[in-house]
Design a protein that fits this description.
It is a single chain. The chain is about 70% helix and about 0% strand. By secondary structure, the chain is mainly alpha-helical. α2 runs antiparallel to α6. The longest helix is centred in the N-terminal third of the chain and has 37 residues. The chain is elongated. The N and C termini lie far apart (about 90 Å). The C terminus is likely disordered.
Length: about 200
């Protein structure tokens, strides 16, 4: 074996270790983890969107005069399903903001619909409505959990691409960009709106 070949053989393992220590493996792994958690978020939002038409239909018979509530929910659902966010757009703050805003508007629109049973006794005994309500509540909880898991994965990825030694691989090999965490952007999203079910006024809607 020539000296050059001997040196190459000795340095190859060192190079592999050095590259792995620079994020060559850990960065794409962290990125894929964040994308996988985002897929979980999307699945839960889709589950919610799928529940809404049946929930609206179950309300129409008992509270048909609540046309504004039903219309706002239907329109908000349409906007939310039309506003998409692919894994490749997770580094685009504006795209994430648009998606978050559309979903937040749907969350807000759903609150009056979910409280209708307080004004309409028939809904309190409507088993289909109650079952759909329960499923929707469970889905909202899963949405919150999946968003938290996504944000943790994003934090891990963003930390890796900004700290040594992974920052070397992030810049040299991948040109990695920070991902955007998911945050509520709807004003007062954490506060339930005041809802009035005065049937004397609703009947004129």
């Amino acid at each position: 074996m020539t000296r050059a070949r001997l040196m190459s053989a000795l340095l190859a393992p060192v190079a592999i270790v050095s590259l792995s220590g620079c994020g060559v493996n850990s960065i794409p792994t962290a990125e894929e983890e964040a994308k996988a958690r985002w897929a979980d978020v999307q699945n839960q939002y889709q589950r919610r969107a799928d529940l809404i038409p049946n929930l609206v239909a179950s309300v129409q018979g008992a509270a048909a005069q609540e046309r504004n509530v039903l219309r706002e929910v239907t329109e908000a659902r349409a906007r939310a399903t039309q506003t998409t966010l692919s894994a490749e757009q997770l580094s685009d703050p504006e795209a994430v903001r648009r998606f978050s805003q559309a979903q937040g508007q749907l969350t807000t629109a759903l609150l009056p619909l979910r409280q209708l049973q307080e004004a309409y006794p028939d809904l309190k005994t409507n088993q289909n409505f109650l079952a759909l309500q329960s499923q929707l509540e469970g889905t909202e909880n899963r949405i919150a959990i999946s968003r938290t898991d996504y944000n943790k994965a994003v934090q891990n990825y963003n930390t890796r691409i900004r700290t040594f030694p992974d920052v070397i691989g992030a810049k040299v090999f991948y040109g990695a960009k920070p991902m955007v965490p998911f945050e509520a952007v709807t004003p007062n999203a954490e506060r339930a709106p005041t809802v009035s079910f005065d049937t004397s006024t609703n009947s004129t809607k």
